[in-house]
Amino acid sequence: MILDSEYISFINQYLKPSENGEPLVLDLFAGCGGLALGFESVGFETLGYESDFDASETYRKNLSGNCETVVLTTETNYPKARVLIGGPPCQPFSVGGKQMGLKDSRDGFPIFISAVEKVNPDIWLFENVRGMLYENKNYLDEILDTLKSLNYVVEFRLLNAKNFGVPQNRERIIVIGHRGEFSWPLEDNKRVTAGEALGSLATSVPKESKFLTPSMDAYVAKYEKASMCVRPRDLHLDRPARTLTCRNLAGATGDMQRVRLPDGRRRRLLHREAARLQSFPDYFEFYGGETSQYNQIGNAVPPLFSRKLALSIKQYLESNLRYSTSEILYKNLPNQLTFEFEINDGIPMPKLPIISYNQIKRNPLLS
Question: Taking CA atoms, which of 66, 77, 108, 285 is between 20 and 30 Å from 334?
Fold first, then answer.
């Protein structure tokens, strides 16, 4: 029998909603509440906005904060809040979504930017897929420049959830806007494996299990050969899982998430197992039909990853240091450049350096 691991005990104990939390965090495009759970677990109050009824119901049933089932627009009004977070729809930037950017009607960034302008929070954060850094890098730059114009220091990093205690290889871009000194969370030295996350679930055969048929096995083998897989795409218990997505959880595809049992049979990953790999605690209950639940899980921000970000934001809010407008302008200059100063009418002004073509090629922030 495989005993429950330290990971399971931790997420079940520490990822719990706070009662009477503060300050208020507005959570746009909230989904089922993965991002909000991380914030509530460290003492924040949350208010979510989500268009999908099943996801917003999951949020309301599991979190202390309310979630309004609403389609957001640039005209939506919000209460005052010190923190604004969200995951604007990522389909315009994901590889699966054809990376259409501004041409995609599902684009949620004008709504997020409008919310930042209206609420004027002390600090804001958004999460999105790594595809924003590639074909749509010009659009990302446009988004960042617009948010900088609202008098925020804007920083971003490509972070992997597996480096923050989540048993899943999940890269996401995190963008932060603030007006003081923000410290990014430190990475963990230890990786949590899929086996540690699933515990005894990995070798169990619940009655709702769905096994791959011989024809599906043949299709998977063909898929793996065509994609030149070195190792089968089954869940490997000795390492973090592959990225969980709506497609590989809910769809019967060659890339589907699946468990290989000791007797050689393979079964589809169950909702509870997928939730564990996303760091949802076992008490967290998902509402809606089977596909809806898988989609909620696949779209979510891992709560344990969110908790690490929330702790950094909490530390920022506890600091009294805030920048002036001129300091914010200076902080937003590309940090790869160094400036010499010259006196102009008695005022020290930065002397802009000459930038070579090779420097531009090496530095994507200058391109």
Answer: 108
Instruction: Give buried/exposed letters for 97-113 (b at 16+ CB in 10 A, else e).
Output: bebebeebeebbbebbb
Counting every residue, how long is the chain? 367
CATH of the domain at 102: 3.40.50.150
Q: Which residues are catalytic?
A: 90
Token pair recorded at residue 145: 């420049």
Give me the amino acid identity at 289: G
Residue position matching structure tokens 């922030």: 365
Edge-to-edge order in the sheet of strand 24-28: 66-69, 45-50, 24-28, 83-86, 123-129, 171-178, 153-160
Same domain, 295 and 319: no
pLDDT digits (tens, 9 = 90+) for 198-225: 999 998 999 999 998 888 888 888 888 8
Enter the tokens of residue 29.
Answer: 């495009």
Residue 330 counted as domain residue: no
Whether residue 101 contacts residue 143, with contact meaning beta carbons closer than 8 Å, is answered with no
Domain of residue 128: give its range.
6-188+301-325
**Cβ proximity of 179 and 323 under 8 Å:** yes
Total domain count, the chain: 3
CB count within 10 Å of CB 4 equals 14
pLDDT single digits (tens) 235-277 = 999 999 999 999 999 887 778 899 999 898 999 999 999 999 9
